[in-house]
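Tutorial sheet, problem 5. The three components below are modelled jointly, 747 residues in total.
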Amino acid sequence: MATNFKRPDGRKVDELREFEAKVGVIPNADGSAMYKSGETIAIAAVYGPKKMHPQHSQDPEKGTLRCTYNMNSFSVSERIRPGPSRRSTEISKITEWALEPALMLDRFPNMVVDVHINIIQADAGTRCAGINAAAMALAHAGIPMRDMVSSVSVGKLDKTIVVDLSKEEEDYEEGEGPTDIPISMTHSGNITHFQLDGKIESKQLMEAVELARKACEQIYEVQKKALKDSINMEEEE
Amino acid sequence: MTETEHKRTVVIPGETIVEGDNYLPGEGTEKQGKKIVALKYGLAEESNKLVKVIPLSGVYQPRRGNIIIGKCNLITFNGWVIDIGTAENAFLPIMETPRFVAKDRLDEVMRIGDICVVQIFGINGRGIDLTMKAKGLGRIDEGIVFKINSNKVPRVIGKEGSMIRIIREYTNCNITVGQNGYVWIKGDKIEDELFAKRAIIFITEKSFMDGLTEKVEEWFKKNGGVKKESKKYEDKGEEY
Amino acid sequence: MGGEEIEITPEVTAERIRKYLEEGKRFDGRNTNEFREVIIERNISKKAEGSVRVKLGKTEVLVGIKMDVSAPYPDSPNKGNLMVTAEFLPLSSSRIELGPPKFDSIEVGRIIDRGIRESKFIELEKLCIKEGEKVWTVFIDIYTINDDGNLLDAAGIGAVAALKLAKVPKYDEEKAKVLYGEYNGDLPLKKMNPFAITIHKIGSNLILDPTREEEDVSETRMTVGSSEGIIYSLQKGNSGYFSVEEIEKSFEIIEKSWKELFKKVEAQLK
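Model answer (structure tokens):
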């Protein structure tokens, strides 16, 4: 791994963008959170567990997790028409799959937990920021969970593996170009979400996964702090 | 944490609370090997080796004996379907009203949209069975009804109703706190009802602090509350 | 959480709200004509041409301006276009379901649109690039984040504030490309503040800026888009009725309230 690779914003290969996390940002929701990574800002709200409608969609064995992912029209330079798109529908499903393994849904048969993610400003890594916010919001809502879920996008720029791609890096044009690898995992290291677009050998991909694991450790600490701080803040009044 | 320490720390799901053979997993936790791991976001508490997590959030879990506040959704031929904020249907059968009700006069006792204080007397596969027979239960005629986080209800009621008593002393209001988080306040003046509501919101915001009773008395004094003469009130919402 | 029916403000509380209003009082201690605290945060998305977060008490909306070049409408070949959309996001309330826009969000979009359009707040004639061929379209997109009543007026404040902060992107005529991120000056606006102010009738009382609880009890309402005493748009919503005296009184209340709102918003945008 080239450790003196020059990233456009000067970060080291294993350095995350500046992050910020907060819970309790939406008063009406049962649980809510904001996660910011560089210039990407995601908020998430959780409603539930509650009765599932229509009745025929209910699962008598366990609760259902429903995620929606939505990008604001003005979160990107070229306006996105409001409303769902194929991309947002796919990411919604990916988000469900990323979070479900950590949730103890068998405790809520016939019920549904709704998670709504909204991207306010996008600069790459939006699905990861969304998953990070959603995981915090689920914990904040008191949903029983085996573990937290953290998400990061690792990538390959030409031949170098880097962590937390920015938009500029996603558009990297030199050499082999960019490879974008969003990964989500539980704190105990189980991978719940894994995607790839680009070109990479499996050996290097495993390096990327290891880099992602280390990055997710850091992100976990940020998520944990946000959840714990929200109590301490109340005490200090 | 030592055996006698009751210190409470905030934990998140998946976090190891303690490690050791002697510890037992209580509510909101799971034993994984030697570790007691939190399964919920909340305050971890250990006492006599039993480790549990007191949730700060999360949906109301109905239990037998709970006194709750609900809204009538539907009237059937033999009772009322009540929404108490759970996924399961809750049903109040005609036999469980304090006085006899004729089958064609159900809507005289309670109409759709009415709110009532009821008690859970059974939970089974079909749903939740309610009763309105005990003292203090019945249709709510007037006052204000609002919702708080159901996890904070024990603090609002206080040990043996101590907290509710303080609120009553300073506001002269009748207060019923449903275990499902719905609160009913009825007083002589709307100002008193709103004062009591503000006090309850204050308690929910400081619910995890120690010495809350003193803090609440201070809050009342600071906000112009004056202890009224004690009247005989029923402490509703306590038996659960 | 679990139930839906019980979420709506119960009738007993509604009775109390009405009774208290008879004495001219509200649960949160405000006067009937008083707006809650207004907090405006600027530039919440750097990718927008202008954007704000508006908090009206606990109600929160995000409003963003985007601009793009397109053909003009046939009946206005030398004027820019305006398009206003409101999205009621399910994350803002348990009462909102995912799905195609329901009437509420459509109404907010259209009312804000008319207020901005009829007042000619945006100087659309100055947004013409090539007559008959290329003009700027101004998109005002409104997103609800937390619903504690009066999303409409919050959206209106957001639209005016976001427009005031908006800049026009550079346009490369040769390549026919908008150069987002590079700007050519402020969005051309007239000097005015066309806020939408909605008055609600509860019993025989008229109130402004209802909380969610109060809005549940509102029998009928009227939204007036105005600036400095001139009314540009008006819409009565919901069934129920106003007497002629109530309408006249409403105009007085709204005109006075506009002045207060103007002060609050100006202070935030300094």
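Marking note: Chain B is about 20% helix and 30% strand. Full credit if you identified this.
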